[in-house]
# Entry
Amino acid sequence: MKLLRINHLGIASPGLDEAMARMERLFGMAPDHLEAVPDQKVKTAFFPVGESTLEFLESTDPEGPIGKFLQKRGPGIHHVCFEVDDVDAVVAHLAGQGVRMIDPEPRPGAHGCRVAFIHPAETGGVLMELSQGPGAS
# Structure
């Protein structure tokens, strides 16, 4: 089991158009990737920053995770994502430790990755995502 790096910070936003305009105005940046992730009921915009990324998330369903987050807390940092070498092994290790997971098994995420979320009650209030890139073993 190995954490490779912080892959991205997920930022809940009421709208991607607004988030993209803000990033352009503040930093002259445009997203390098836009994607809908129906399983998570979001549209995403990714902005590379050094070796990491900012992922802005717009809810496509008010009852989805981002929709509920925005209703409860408003816009802001939603999660931190760690890239791992083997998401199945990490999830199995955590389950063996009795760690509460939002996803007991990895599921499809953006960029063709497989992801699983650790419940924030286990991490001191921070939602943590584990992500394994496509083709990784």
Notes: The chain has three helices and eight strands. The longest strand covers residues 3-12. Residues 7 and 51 are 8 Å apart (CA to CA).
